[in-house]
Design brief:
Elements: H1 2-27, E1 37-38, E2 41-48, E3 57-65, E4 69-70, E5 77-79, E6 86-89, E7 93-97, E8 103-106, E9 112-113, E10 119-120, E11 128-129, E12 132-133, E13 141-144, E14 149-153, E15 163-167, E16 170-171, E17 178-180, E18 186-188, E19 201-204, E20 206-208, H2 214-251
Antiparallel strand pairs: 1-4, 2-3, 5-20, 6-19, 7-8, 7-16, 9-10, 11-12, 13-14, 14-15, 17-18
Helix pairs in contact: 1-2
Subcellular location: Bacterial flagellum basal body
Keywords: Bacterial flagellum, Cell projection, Cilium, Flagellum
Pfam families: Flg_bb_rod, Flg_bbr_C, LlgE_F_G_D1
């Protein structure tokens, strides 16, 4: 009887976990630069015996989580007209500084200048340039080139007085080496900062949307709900069978 209960229990548990991942993806369907999370599962046969192929017996198959990952498919790019909005064209990442002083990476290019004159993300994380966080003169007009170069024009200056102040650090490490943190930012698995890649290009005045497909996410939510109902039904059936067996034993 325990075979049915525990097998169904693992299936129900993983269905709930997958539902949480899909719900988080759906909640971020309109988040700038969001990368959908992937929830993969695998079946694991449970064998008992002395370790030899002859005596080992597979008694049940459990469901376990596989290595989680992310969908790195680029999202749609839309024009905003805001000179501080940038969208990565193709593969690549924008380097930002986390509150602990380390480096992390994002695709969210909705930038702005804070009260300290630093270019920051929507979450107020400083954007990293050649020498650390990028700062611009107050009240200056900021433009960002396709290579991430940051130029400013002071108030009252002629158009030909534009000055280059820094360049956004754009990286493009192997996607298989990237890991998503609890803060939604990505970091290399080895913990070392990625090198700047001059081949990464950005589109100024544009933003990249989330790569979550809302329709596919809704279908996944319905599928997970039905799988969870099926597993709980098996657990209820096992409980009913056990109660019937106890009644028969009590009459014997």
């Amino acid at each position: 009887m325990d075979r049915l209960i525990y097998t169904a229990m693992t299936g129900a548990t993983q269905a709930l976990d997958q539902q949480a991942v899909v719900a988080n993806n759906l909640a971020n369907a309109s988040t700038t630069g969001f990368r959908a999370q992937l929830a993969n599962f695998r079946s694991v046969p449970m064998s008992f015996g002395d370790g030899s192929a002859v005596n080992d017996q597979t008694t049940r198959t459990f469901v376990l989580s596989a290595t989680p990952g992310s969908d790195y498919t680029p999202g749609p790019i839309s024009q905003t007209g805001n000179p501080l909005d940038i969208a990565i064209q193709g593969s690549g990442w924008i380097a930002v500084q986390t509150p602990d002083g380390n480096e992390a990476y994002t695709r969210a290019g909705n930038l702005h200048v804070d009260e300290n004159g630093q270019i920051v993300t929507a979450n107020n994380l400083p954007v990293i340039g050649n020498g650390g966080p990028i700062a611009v003169p107050p009240a200056s007009q900021v433009t960002i080139g396709t290579d991430g170069s940051v130029s400013v024009l002071a108030p009252g200056d002629p158009p030909n007085a534009i000055a280059l102040v820094d360049q956004i650090k754009l990286v493009n490490p192997d996607a298989n080496t990237m890991m998503r943190g609890d803060d939604g930012l990505f970091r290399p698995a080895d913990g070392n900062p990625a090198d700047q890649d001059p081949n990464v290009q950005v589109a100024s005045g544009s933003l990249e949307g989330s790569n979550v497909n809302p329709v596919a996410a809704m279908v996944s939510m319905i599928t997970n709900a039905r799988q969870f109902q099926m597993q709980t039904k098996l657990i209820q059936t096992a409980d009913q069978n056990e109660q019937s067996a106890n009644q028969l034993l009590s009459f014997s």
